[in-house]
Structures are given as C-alpha cells and as structure tokens.
Amino acid sequence: MNTNPAFVLRPTAWLLATALAMLSACTTMAPSYEPPSAAAPTAFKEAPAAGSNWFPAAPADALDRGLWWQLFGDPILSKLVGQVEVSNQNVAAAVAAYAQAQALVRQQRAALFPSLALDAGVTRNGGAAALGKPTNLQLGLSASWEPDVWDRLRLAVSSAQASAQASAANLAAARLSAQAALATDYFALREADNEIALLTAAVSAYQRALTITRNQYKMAIAQRTDVLQAQTQLETTRANLIAKVGQRALLEHAIALLVGKAPADFSIAVAPWDVKVPAVPLVVPSSLLQRRPDIATAERAVAAANAQIGIQRAAYFPSLALSASYGGAGSTLPSLFQASNTLWSLGLSAAQTLFDAGAIAARVEGAQAARDAAVANYRQTVLAAFQAVEDELATSRSLAEQESQRRAASADADRTEQLTLNQYLQGQVPYTSVVAAQVSALAARQTLSQLMSSRQAAAVALIQAMGGGWHAPGTDASAAAR
C-alpha cells in the first residue's frame, strides 16, 4: 500500500475542487442597499419658506461641528462643557457601548477565517492490560473553516458594522444631549443670579419705602394701612428672593451631575451674565439635518436590517464546512513524531434543510418587514427633526421680536414706579398705587431677564435640533455670533 500523502490526497481532491467551485459562484443574498429617501424641504418654513422634495439619505453626522458653545462667548461655560466629555457617566456609558459594538464587528469578521486548535493529552494507565504501555501521549492539530459561499458571514459583518456606526451616532447624541442640557442649565443659573440681584435691589428699595411710610405714619401723614402694605410688599419680595436662591442651588446641582461631580464638591461662583445670543442665518440649508445623530442612527438601522434579509435568505442553501486534522499518539515523546503513529484527515461536510414547514420563508419575510419598519422609523425621525428645527426657528424669532418691547416695557415700568412714589410723597395718590407700580416694575424686570435666558436656551435647542451647529466645515463660526 502506498502511504505517500500526495497519493492519499488524490481521492479527496474532488472535495476541495467542489468547495472552490462553489466559492467562485458566491453571490450576495441581501438586496442591493439603497439609502432610504425622506421628505426634506429646500429651505425651512420659518427661515423663510421654500418648496420641498425627496432626496436619499447620506448621514454626515461624522462632520466636524466645531465648538458650538463658544458662540456664546462665555469662558466658564466652555470650561464646563469640556468636562462633559471626560466625566459625564451617560457619555461614558455610550463610549462603552460603542466599544462593545466595535468588538462585535471584530468577532463577526473573525468567522470569515479558519480556526486552528492544538490538542494534547497524557494518559497514565494501570492494571494487567496496561503492561508494556502504561503511558499514552497524544498530540494533534485540527483546523476547521466554514466557506462563506452564500455571503452569510460577510452580511453578518456588514450588519455588525452598521450597528457599530449606529452606536457611534448614539454616542454623539449622548454627548450633544449632555452638552445642550449643561448649556441650558448654565444660562438658567445665570438668569437666576440676575433675578437674585433684581430681587435684592428691590428688597433694598422696598425697605427704604417702608421706612419713609413709617415716618409719614408717625407724622400722621400716612395711614396705618400704608405701613402694612409696605411691610407686605417687603416680606413677599424677601420670600421670593429666598425661593430664587433655592432654585439656583438646584440648577447648580444639575450642572454638577452633568460634569460627573457630587454637588457637595461643586460650585459656580456668581459672575456677570453675558446675554450674547448667536445670530441665526436667514437661510439654513436642510442638508445640515443629516448631521443629526438620531437620523444617522435610524439610517444605519435600515442598513443593518437590509443585511439581515440576506442572512435569512442564505438558509435556503446548503451550509458547508471544511475540516482537517493531523496528529500522533505514542507511549514516548519521540514516538509521537514517527510516521507509523501519525493520523491525518480531511473532510468536507454539507447540510441542507429539506423541509421546515415554511420557517425559512417566514424568517425572510420577518426580516423584510423589519427593514420596512426601519425605513418608516427613519422617515419619521427625519420629519420629527424638521419639526424640531422649525419649532426652534419660530421660537427664536418670536423671542427676538419680543426683546425690544420687553425692554421698553421695563423702562416704562421703572419710570412709573419712581413717578408714583414721588406722587405718593406729595400726597397725590394712595399707597396702593405705589405698591401696584412696584409690583409691575419688578415683574417687568424679571420678565425681561427670563426672556433673555429663553433666547439663549432657544439658541441651544436650535443648535441641538440641527445636530450640533448650523455651520458647515470650513466656515467661520464666530462670524455668526454677536
């Protein structure tokens, strides 16, 4: 008998040839992926309006959005936002999820290559039957490979890659959400500082008014009710001041959480409030909405679902596996490598489902339905994104138009307060008129302060709605700030 390995391999050559022929006929089971189209206007209605059309998805969420928070020109805000990337635990969890998704891609890609295994063992035998061979040594090397004939494994890699890209978009969304929340809370805190200053000044003014009223009462010029009204006004304003200080503390705690610190170890000193609001361009290209992380996530979900169709279709065809092994056995270490003690094998196995009562077809239909659902979810996400931008554009415009009227109203209320107090001192009006003027003036100041905070919050919300900024790469972001 010829023990030449070359001779022994010839009977199995047809197995390898068959496998190679099938590999050469490899086809793609998944439908050709076409990014889903979505309704998109050529310009936003509130910026102003234009027509609408449909265009294919091309997420640009990886584009550099720039340091959008620097548009507000607040160094303290910039420092705090920088800590979100490092310390915020929600962002850290998103980073870990992205790393997990990348590991899954590498795991799926590894299935494309053969696997090798080394087996070794030592057995010590006893008893009368083991005389002469008390020790048995084994050493073997085995290999197995599943040829990706029907592209199932490559489609699994493609699906995992799409999921990893969606995870990256989720990371960007978590980062942007935390940054926007911090900026919004920060501006609310600065507005609280401003209101605290307004209330503190009002308390001082009302204290002086109470002193004047008491003096007039002692001189029998004013009535006792005037003193009581002045006291009520003062105590009410003091209570409002205490409440506003409490609200500021809560905002400080919220910011501490966003930067990953315990509230006890975090504080923000009172500082002048810069009410700068970035100017919104008159025309905002709708294509910038493709930078939104949630849109990118939805589009990548469609790509992953499309690959799953091919994976399920591959079950219609036979599954193939190649295997090979080489090893030896002996009672001593040198005998392991003697030709008479070696054993090798080559194998090709195939399996085909002949009847499954329509299970494979059902899985294919389920995968197609999942893709259709992902497409619908993508389009709904795009529509919701357009609504968010339109809402924030309308809000920003409305608040900007209110500012001049609110400033004028506050100035008029201040003059009315002063004139009414002078008229009271001259005995021309009752003290109730003074109280009404004081309430109106303080309310007008607070409303103006809240309006400016709302304008900054609306600018942050607009930036978030547009995926992190409205400036395309290479443009000067500072040119749009004032």
Encode the helix/strand succession as letters: HHEEHHEEHHHEEHH
Tell me the helix content: 55-70%
CATH class type of the largest domain: Mainly Alpha
Low-confidence residue ranges: 1-26, 49-55, 472-482
**Number of self-contained structural domains:** 2
**Order of adjacent strands in the largest pleated sheet:** 3-4-5-6
- Major pleated sheet: 4 strands, antiparallel
State the oligomer.
Answer: single chain
Average pLDDT: 80
Global morphology: elongated
Structural class: alpha+beta
CATH architecture of the largest domain: Up-down Bundle
Tally of helical runs: 9
Range of strand content: 5-15%
End-to-end Cα distance, whole Å, is 94 Å
Structural notes for this entry:
The chain has two domains: 90 residues, Outer membrane efflux proteins (OEP); 371 residues, Outer membrane efflux proteins (OEP). Helices cover 57% and strands 11% of the residues. The protein is built from nine helices and six strands; from the N terminus they run ααββααββαααββαα. Helix 3 packs across helix 5, helix 4 packs antiparallel against helix 5 and helix 6 runs parallel beside helix 9. The longest helix has 67 residues.
